[in-house]
Amino acid sequence: MRLPVKCLIVIAGLMLGVATSARAQAPMAKPLTPEQRQKLDAGWQTLQASLKSLGEQPGHLVADAAVYAKGVEWALRYERDFTPADIALLEKSLARGQERVTAIANHKPAWLSRQGKMAVGYVSAVDGSVQPYGLIVPKSHDAAKPIRLDVVLHGSTRPVGLSELRFMARFDTGDAPDTMAPDQPFIELHPLGRVENCYRWAGEADVFEAIEDVCRRYRIDRDRIVLRGMSMGASGTWHLGLKHPDRFVALGPYCGYVDTHKFSHSPFPHFPRIDKLPDQQELGLHMLDSIDYAANAGIVPAIACMGEKDLNFDAHVIMGEAMEREGLKMVNLISPGTGHVIDPVTHAEQMRRIAEYSVKGLNHSPSELKFVTWTLKYGRAHWLQLQGLDRHYARAELRAKVQDQVLEIAEPTNINRFQIITSQLPGNVKSLRVGTVDLSLPTSADKPATVVVSKRDQRWSLASEGDAARQSGKRPGLQGPIDDAFTSPFLCVRGTGTAWNPAVQAYSDASLARFSEEWHHYMRGALPIKDDTAVTEDDLRTKNLILFGDPGSNSWIAKCLPQLPVSWTKETLKWGDQSYPAGDHLPAFIAPNPLPAGAGRYVVINSGHTFRGIDFATINYLLFPRWGDWAVLQIDSKRAATEPVTETVLKSGFFNEEWRMP
After folding, report:
1. How many of the other CB atoms lie within 10 Å of CB of 612?
2. Residue 614 phi, psi dihedral angles, 5° rounding
3. What is the rounded distance in angstroms from the CA atom of residue 247 to the CA atom of residue 244?
4. What's the confidence (pLDDT) of residue 23?
């Protein structure tokens, strides 16, 4: 039975009243005394020195100790008031960090073979930051045997200075043997996901980096990795699971939103409503909204749960409707009489069904495949990898079936190039039919492991190796938008030369400073920054370059400019068919790095994330792309250095599939 909205709002108010009452009884938080601050600062500095003394110890071991120092550093920077419990947590964390440093120095890291709960960490390739995650290792764990891994995504939590330490405290029960280790046939991984972003952007990278770190530590059966979560964790499960359907054996979302517009209209007064957005922002939502990927539940099974009286009940209703349009039946276990909580009985049934799939393991060679995406960022499913679309952020669909040694592919929708991993196809496939075109697969002894199929002049054919090497335009890993550059290793580069226009340079400096503060605060790491004179060949080869300034101040902008889709002189910025005075206008955009040493990497000009700190601080569904691939910015040339950095976006949008203006 569904309750009317008025009743649901009353229930929410009662829940809020309980929380408010609990807070009223909690000890008052207040600023640290000078003595307390001095003691904590001294402890942090001592721990930092101890970490440096470890020298060339294995990186994952150092990270397991460094997560405590990192958590204390963020707490002391971003918290103003502390309860006695907060201070005790800070002191305990400093002590735990020192304990682990001592254990590492003595070659006795007992937690590596521990069973039960623990907090550990890894060094992110994205920005070099230390990121924590929680582990739960069962008491029956046998290090010699492959084991299932359950990735469990946490719910929404407001990002604060103590976020890391409070998260870690859920798992940190010491490094001695744990008599309370659970009896379950899987290891649990609890990623932090950089706190609060619904596992988008670097939060998405965090999940997969944490998985890889666990796989380095334990003998994980990669064919039995489960993804599940509650609330924001359920939304993350839909988001990651349906877009990476060949990475997980089953999904277990429990009460999670699946779109932006309808969820923003939930009956909560603090939810900003998202109505009609500018065109490029509406298109960008297709990169994020999980309902657009509902068809991929035919590849990875999802066992969803929802409380009967959950205020967000409609989220799973619209996902169920989306699956029905794809010819699928959604499994949605409804917990009678419950709201936005996990019901133990319903959860047990969910876990029972997940176990049935995990026992079977992943089928890497399905004989039928229906795969849908809206971007090449999410373009892979088992033996299929999409490589070219006719148009990004429009539905792309490929349906295939192996029958009588023939791989039959219905005419693909919005796709002009794809790769087939022939070695992974089921059975002995000898021929290929795409639409109405029959193609012969190589049959020699040196049959290639993959073939690429492309469309030219409205006809499908097998691409040659030379053709594959010449592929340009948008492709997997180089498809945009601007915000995608910050999901893999990147480096911000500030110019040290003489700017063409001081106002533009002042804006770019302030923009970099803003991005640095927002990244540190909300993405929980120090923004990687170098002067243009310090950038190395290795930086160029391994990182996306985020260039701030103009061609006069930043030598790397000047080097890339001749091959970028913009005309920019000291006097004039020409973008498409329009010109702007360069004294108070500048471009912000993403493109493939045109320098040979930077092949396969992005270059971004004058932009960090296109959403802002206020969006991070408000609610996670606001973290969608604002500018697309590019924007033309007008700035206030009379802005004082002390004034907040602002810009007026005159135009913004997406490049076409060849990285040019449409």
Report:
1. 17
2. -65, -30
3. 6
4. 43
Contacts 24+ apart (CB under 8 A), 31-40: 31/80, 31/81, 31/82, 32/82, 32/87, 36/87, 37/76, 40/72, 40/76, 40/87, 40/90, 40/91, 40/94
Instruction: State residue 170's pLDDT score.
Output: 98
Q: What is the DSSP letter of 645?
A: P
Q: Give every strand in the sheet of 431-434, ordered side by side.
A: 368-373, 396-403, 406-409, 431-434, 437-440
Q: Please classify residue 52 by burial: count the beta carbons closer than 10 Å to its beta carbon, then call 0-12 exposed, 13-18 middle and 19+ buried.
A: exposed
* Domains and their CATH numbers in the chain: 368-469 (no CATH), 482-653 (3.30.379)
- Say if strands 437-440 and 431-434 run parallel, antiparallel, or are unpaired: antiparallel
Of residues 191, 253, 248, the one with CA closest to residue 225:
248
Question: What one-letter code names the amino acid at 461?
Answer: S
pLDDT at 639 (0 to 100): 81
Over the range 407-437, which residues count as b (16 or more CB within 10 Å of their CB) and which as e? bbbeebebbbbbbbbbeebeeebeebbbeee
Amino acid at residue number 346: T
Identify the CA nearest to 382 among candidates 258, 253, 247, 262. Answer: 247
* DSSP string across 438-476: EEEPP-STT--SEEEEEEETTEEEEPPHHHHHT--SSBT
Question: DSSP character for 616?
Answer: H
In angstroms, rounded to a whole number, what is the distance separating the alpha carbons of residues 246 and 231?
Answer: 23
- The dihedral region occupied by 628, where left means phi > 0, alpha psi between -120 and 50, and beta the remainder, is left
Along the chain (662 residues), what's the average pLDDT of each consecutive run of 10 residues? Answer: 34 34 65 97 98 86 97 98 98 98 96 97 98 97 97 96 98 94 97 98 98 98 98 98 98 97 91 95 98 98 97 95 98 97 97 98 97 98 97 98 95 97 91 94 74 93 70 94 98 97 96 98 98 98 98 98 96 96 97 97 98 96 98 90 89 97 88
Strand partners, 462: 453
Indicate yes or no: pTM above 0.70: yes
Write out the two tokens for 514: 């803003």
**Dihedrals φ, ψ of 214, to 5°?**
-65, -40
